[in-house]
Specification:
Length: about 450
């Protein structure tokens, strides 16, 4: 087999509106509005730098069926730049940009292949001087809501070359996305392809390595629900047909979550310093790019009562003001301007989820439901085997549920052994801790408000 290299990207959502952010300075707003285009430019430059043989885009190139002209022109320019560097592109359209959407009449390079709706189309990849290296199959969505299992339309080609399926689909009912083109991992594996280049799910996932079944996630985070590094996979196929994957971050702006506990904050000064540390931690995690940050104040402590009312709002406003001053985002005739400073961290929201201070040891000795609940949790923490039995009894109904069970297995909560009704090592103890803290918060708050 002839070695080759390709890039797998999906869910570009070009020209997303970024609704929901209010009071954002114009330079920050402009940065967000342009981030999907900047990520596309990063993808193009990566393909050229890596000398990729071709690029796969697994659906939702555009954010809506009524594709903005700006988005189409920017994508056209990117595809032209790839063509000028001898890089082919293979594209399917998904539920956000189906084929029945509005499309400008543009002359696309011959190296760009957009798959049609209907049957899976087989396209050979023939590289100059190297010959036939792969076959790609793909199907685009004719309309936004596709409920049919498109995976059943794919089949392994002939000729002994590497086989790729390009599909926008929901595998095993991922609950955070619409169940479009639903299929199962088992069904994908049965087709006999070497690599499934998937789109639709915005979280990066490798569902299988034999065959490869891969979601690269979206190219650019667009809200606080899409946090962390976003980008694509660079895939190397060697002379034996073995594939190796490398994730490459391409996001122009990174969305991040951080939690700050008030448990160790006795004064407003200590809380302020804890928030500033969270901002600097986010700045480092953004790896040299601007970021949008949500901070959640959690835990139990003396400052809980202080955080009710306008105090938290004032804190958030001051954090933004400090960042504005650092960046030189001061109002002037003609708008705002960026100064020279480390990468921007814009506070999207400061969320308060704190509770009243509690003496846990005293509560453990207390009579009544809360004391009994905490004693049971403490007893289970000290007896791992009893905890596993308890967890199995609690989790069996969830694991028996089609979608809940699939989610638990995919996220690693379901154990490999037995009938899949246990939990991975350590997961039961962590879930018990989280559950007891959640109940403690809510029951104490109820008692306080009674």
């Amino acid at each position: 087999m002839i070695p080759f290299r390709f890039i797998h990207a999906a869910d570009l959502h070009l020209d997303s509106p970024f609704a929901g952010l209010s009071g954002v300075p114009e330079p920050v707003s402009r940065l967000l509005r342009g981030s999907t285009f900047a990520a596309l430019d990063n993808l193009t430059e990566l393909a050229i730098r890596e000398k990729a043989d071709f690029v796969l885009i697994a659906g939702d190139v555009y954010d809506s069926a009524d594709r903005s002209l700006k988005a189409q022109l920017r994508f056209h320019r990117a595809m032209k730049r790839l063509a000028e560097n001898g890089i082919s592109a293979f594209v399917v359209h998904g539920n956000h940009d189906p084929l029945d959407g509005r499309e400008a009449r543009l002359d696309w390079p011959g190296s760009v292949h957009v798959f049609k709706a209907g049957e899976a189309e087989h396209v050979p990849v023939v590289l100059a001087g190297r010959g036939h290296v792969a076959d790609i199959q793909g199907i685009s969505y004719p309309t936004a809501a596709v409920r049919e299992n498109y995976a059943l339309r794919f089949g392994r080609g002939t000729g002994g070359v590497y086989q790729i399926g390009l599909l926008h689909a929901n595998v095993d009912g991922s609950p955070e996305h619409e169940d479009y083109a639903p299929c199962s991992l088992r069904e994908l594996g049965a087709v006999g392809l070497d690599y499934w280049a998937l789109g639709h799910v915005h979280t990066r996932r490798v569902l299988s390595e034999g065959p490869w079944v891969v979601y690269p996630g979206n190219l650019q985070g667009r809200s606080i629900r899409e946090t962390g590094a976003k980008g694509c996979y660079v895939v190397e196929v060697d002379e034996t047909g073995r594939s190796s994957l490398r994730f490459q971050a391409l996001d122009a702006v990174r969305w991040l979550n951080r939690q700050v506990s008030i448990a160790d904050c006795s004064t407003e000064q200590e809380l302020k310093e804890a928030l500033e540390r969270a901002v600097e931690d986010a700045r480092a995690a953004a790896e040299g790019r601007p970021s949008v940050l949500r901070i959640v104040l959690a835990g139990r402590g003396k400052l809980h009562g202080r955080l009710q009312g306008g105090f938290a709002r004032d804190l958030a406003e001051e954090l933004r003001r400090w960042e504005q001053e650092r960046w030189g985002l001061e109002e002037a005739a003609g708008g705002f301007g960026f100064g020279e400073a480390p990468p921007l961290v814009w506070l999207e929201k400061l969320v308060v989820r704190t509770g009243v201070a509690a003496d846990r040891e005293a509560l453990l000795q207390a009579e009544g439901f809360l004391g009994e609940l905490l004693r049971l949790a403490a007893e289970l923490e000290g007896e791992p085997q009893a905890l596993q039995v308890f967890a199995k009894e609690c989790m069996e109904p969830l694991l028996a549920h089609h979608r809940a069970g699939a989610l638990m297995r995919r996220t690693g909560l379901a154990a490999d052994g037995g009938a899949g009704t246990g939990l991975e090592a350590g997961a039961a103890a962590e879930l018990l801790k989280q559950a007891s803290e959640w109940l403690l918060d809510h029951l104490l708050d109820e008692e306080e408000g009674a």
